[in-house]
Structures are given as structure tokens and as C-alpha cells.
Amino acid sequence: LSCDVPVIEHGSVLGGRQQYRENEVLNFKCDPSHKRTDDRQSRCMKVGTGAEWIPTPGCKLIQCVLTPLPGTTYRPPNRNLFLPREKLQVICGDRDYILDHKKTTAQVTCKEDGEWNINPVCLEVKCSNYLPNENLYQNVWTGENNKLGNTVRYSCRRNYRRPDGVTHATCTRDGWTPKPLCQSLSCQKPNLENAKITGGEKWSYKNGDEVTYRCLKGAQTSFTATCDQGTWTGNSGCSGVRPCTKPEIPNGFSVDPINNTLYYSCNEGYKLSTKGWWGET
């Protein structure tokens, strides 16, 4: 049994042989801008009482194939075959995405090998099947209720609460919101500008805990702040009186301030407007 050398449109057989024995492989190449119709090797195979090339050797024009999907818009429209370097704009429907959940449109390009550089397919936006376990009272399975706009009821564990007005988590293009689902009722150590904590100092505070502090500037008044559902209330704040900087004294000099008082004197050949060697301010 033998196979004759085939005539391949847009291609040529290599080697110059005219016949091939059973099980021998055909070596051929395609013309520029064409590729093999089948990636498998063509082999001379027994078929009935004769022999044929399996699969049939052939070459086809390199093109990218588009399979239009309902709900997706394509520009240019009404085409499903594209040559290398040709571009296609893909516009997804309101509930779909391409590349990532926030992208609803993309420009794709047909590559030299007949493949798209980006898969021109829009997918439906879906959130995770479980709510993020961010201090939830228990794990919440969303099942099929995880599509864009779907809501799921949830509860928070002790010392945490849902944001004001929120009863359900909502599936959005950013995932499940709000973020975080549960807010801490405890407070971190307050950062009080121009103040010093004088009572109740610690690193973390429960709801209702208080801290007292004294202002370091001005009247040095004392205040009390209360941890109220994760935020500090009653914090009147201390005025930020700017400290004076050491001035430049023409024809004179000064020493470091003592108790907020600056002492200065004059260079040789100069004198103070008041009696004495030192002035103060």
C-alpha cells in the first residue's frame, strides 16, 4: 500500500518524493498568511483496500474567528472573520464584563497565528459564593444569589456592627459591599495632637471606655473622650499653638530658651536699648 504525493492548495510538499509507504508522515509547509487545516501530522493510512492521507493535508488562510454572543455589541458589526492585525471592539452588556469585573469594553487584535490577543468573550459578573468572613457572626453561603445586584442578609459577631442603615450585603462590580461588612465597636488608642493622656491609657478600648487627657498648650485644660461604636466622641481637641522659633538677631546672639523665655545680648560695639548685658523676650 502507498499514497501518492498530494497537491496542496496554498502549500507545498517538502522532499521531492512522489509516493509514500503505509504509516509514513507527509512533510509539507503552507504559504505565507496560511496555516495547516489540522495540527495533527498527515500519515499514509490503510482505508479499506487502499490508502489515504489521514488527516487530509491542507492549508487555510490565517484568520481569527468570532462567535457572536447575545447581549454583546461588536464594532465593526456583522463580521465573524478577521485577518491578522485587524482590531475588534467588544462592548459588554450591563451585567457582564471583559478582562475584569470593572471593564465593560475592550479592543482586541487578531494575532499573526490566527488567535485573539484577548478572548473576545463577555462574562456575567458574579461575586464569591461565600461572604468575606470579616468578623461575621457565621459563614454566609450565597449559593446562586451571587449575581450583580443580588443582596444577602448577614449579622456581625460581638463587638462589631453593620454600617448605619445596612441590613444586607450587595453584590457589585467591586465584590460584596459595604467594605468592610462589619465595623469594630472598639477604638484604637487616640492620637491627640498637642495633648497628653492622663487617665485610662491603653492600646485598645471597648465601646463605652473613656480616656482623659490634658492640653499641652494654651490653658492646659483637661477633657474626657469616650469610645462610641468605633469612634471617639467628646474630644474637644487642643489648640495647636505654634512654638516660637529661635530668631536671627542682627548684631547680636541668643541662648536656648528657658521656660519659654529667650535671652539675648549684643555683639561688641553694640548695646541693648535697655540697661544691662542681657535682654529677654
From TrEMBL:
Keywords: Disulfide bond, Signal, Sushi. SMART domains: CCP. It comes from the Eukaryota. The keyword Signal applies. It is found in: Virion. Pfam families: Sushi (PF00084). Residues 1-61, 62-124, 125-184, 185-240 form the Sushi domain. Its main location: virion. The keyword Disulfide bond applies. SUPFAM superfamilies: Complement control module/SCR domain. This is Coagulation factor XIII B chain.
